[in-house]
Amino acid sequence: MLARYFQASLVKRIMWAFVLGCIIGGIAHAAGWGFPEKLAVLGDIFVAGLKAVVIPVIFFSLLSGATTIETDKFGSVGKRVVMSYGLTILVAALVGTIMALSFNVGSGFALEGISSSVTGAQNLGADSISGTLYNTFIGALANPFSALSSSNFLGVIVAALVIGIALKVNEESHPGSPLVKIIGHVNDTMLTIVGWVMHFAPIGIFGIVVSSIGVYGATLAGTFASILGALVAAMVFVALIVYPLTHYLLARQNPYAVMWRIFKTAGVTAFFTRSSAATLPVSIATMDDMGVDQSVSRFALPIGATMNMTGAAITVAVFTIFAANVFEVHLGLMELMIVIFSAAIVSVGAGGVPSGSLMLLFVSLNALGLSADQSGLVVGLAFTLTAIQDSFETCLNVFGDNVITHGVDQSLKS
């Protein structure tokens, strides 16, 4: 029995856990049974595991990624690729925020006993924005050991990137340094631990869904529908409007002529595998078939698989707005700008992390002023939708990698 559980794919286990949780929770809510609330402990254990590993996973994933940057290729191709990826990520975060506000995700959905514990988050008014930005900037420059111990997410990200790039530069001057290999092994070890935590995900999600629906009933179904609506609408907009526009600005040709060829190969593969890395060979073959220069595709696609996370930016933005509505955090224009930029920045680190966008959601929620417990609750709820969300997200990420790679190649040939 236990062997069959571990042999089944994680997606199937999560989907069955979600379905069973909805059925049992719905029956319990209708019958007025109180036992679903006790099953919330399963979700608490799962979220606690995520919170325990998220900081070291982010640190070593970014550190390992920074040491693999091929600086010798970072010329005209690199500038076009990185600028295109960066701009589309920022636009995606903006689109995700607008869609989340349009769908009003999380509004009126109060979490009993938790929303009242927000500490100072509702008072992030215009008068405190300069102080918030100052503290954010100073926090980014924190001692890496202090950042790790205090769960200063932005400080961890900046430290990992700076140390990783420095290690890469040093490694180029002194080839064969064992430290880079050790960091790679440590990163693999951390991802193995995440894999262990994710084996518990179906059980934790079952506890979250049963306890949530057992308490809130159909209200939660409406909330889930609004979140998925905002996510899918934002991703479709980016796929059909933002990426084609980016391709046109690069190549000055009709982008829709190449989009179908990309979608039916790399896009469909990414949707079902839910892995940018696993789809990379298909993406490379697709670009080869479309006549893209290999010096461009071999550089742009691997970078895109780790950096171009427009889907993750949308996911982080939507769930951040959801959290703000649930915990009644006031978001003015400046606060919304912080949400957009934080979603764009943290999404870049989602590539090497399993369920990366949801793991890195901790960073954005921390910037919003939520406590660790509140952030954990939002992330736990987000994981109940991961089977659907992650498929659309990965499809968009890989689709964008290919569209931009083709556009850059055409811009260099014109």
UniProtKB/TrEMBL annotation:
Record field: transmembrane: 14-33, 45-69, 81-103, 153-170, 191-218, 224-245, 266-287, 299-324, 336-363
According to Swiss-Prot or TrEMBL, what is its membrane topology? Multi-pass membrane protein
Compartment(s) where it occurs, according to its Swiss-Prot or TrEMBL record: Cell membrane
Q: What is its main location?
A: membrane
Report the domain of life of the source organism. Answer: Bacteria
Give the matching SUPFAM superfamilies: Proton glutamate symport protein (SSF118215)
Q: Which UniProt keywords apply?
A: Cell membrane, Membrane, Transmembrane, Transmembrane helix, Transport
Q: Name one Pfam family in it.
A: SDF
**PANTHER family for the chain:** PROTON/GLUTAMATE-ASPARTATE SYMPORTER, PROTON_GLUTAMATE-ASPARTATE SYMPORTER
Q: What is this protein called?
A: Serine/threonine transporter SstT
Q: Which organism is it from?
A: Sinobacterium norvegicum
The uppermost taxa in this organism's lineage are: Bacteria, Pseudomonadati, Pseudomonadota, Gammaproteobacteria, Cellvibrionales
